[in-house]
Known about the structure:
239 residues, Nucleotidyltransferase, domain 5, three-stranded antiparallel β-sheet, 6 helices
Amino acid sequence: MVGPGLRSARPGSHGEVRRTSHGRRRAGPGPDRRRALPHSREGARSASCRSTPATRDPTPSAVVVDSQSVRACERGGPCGDDGGKKASGIKRHLLVDTRGTVLVTCVSPACVGDRDGAVVPFARAADAFPRLRHVWADQGYRGTGFHAWVLEATGITVETVQRRDGGFRSTWARVGVPPPAVPRFAVVPRRWVVERTLAWLVRCRRLSKDYESLRVCSETAIYLAMAMLPVRHLASPAR
């Protein structure tokens, strides 16, 4: 029996059709509307479970490397000047997986170069992750000598990912030939993952600057901040 203000569903429709206070009609929660849609959280979770095989190894085989110069406060500890970034403090060297999770980190004075500072996290990653065979890096890690040393010492190959504009706002062109289009902004393949992780870390107040006196305390703060991200996602209620 149909109650007041309601009307039975039309043949072939799912659920009921209700009349709202504005006089409009909308479909009720029929049985087919309760399934997880692809754009919902349940649909995305089920899709990720279907796309991830059960036999996938939990340890990574490829990572992304990058560094970040951070200003230091008035305290004792490792400190240096990064002329390129115009920052006086420390430099964080990170190895993240393809999802942006920090796997290995190392803290050094800001005056240490990217290639020199990457020696420690590469050695740690080679011992902790035996399946690791490939690393994506930016222009700061280029150099055939450095790549040859990493391959010989750890068995890891380093691939330098270049930007579409080559890292410059302008380029050269022959006389009479129109210059190629240089994009003002473009997402760099693979490297955007570690850039997003660096943005996550600086949002933590404890990591906005270097407040630690010991190098091991700075590295521990990075691991703790990274561990808080998945915990917050798991604790947040489903929308």
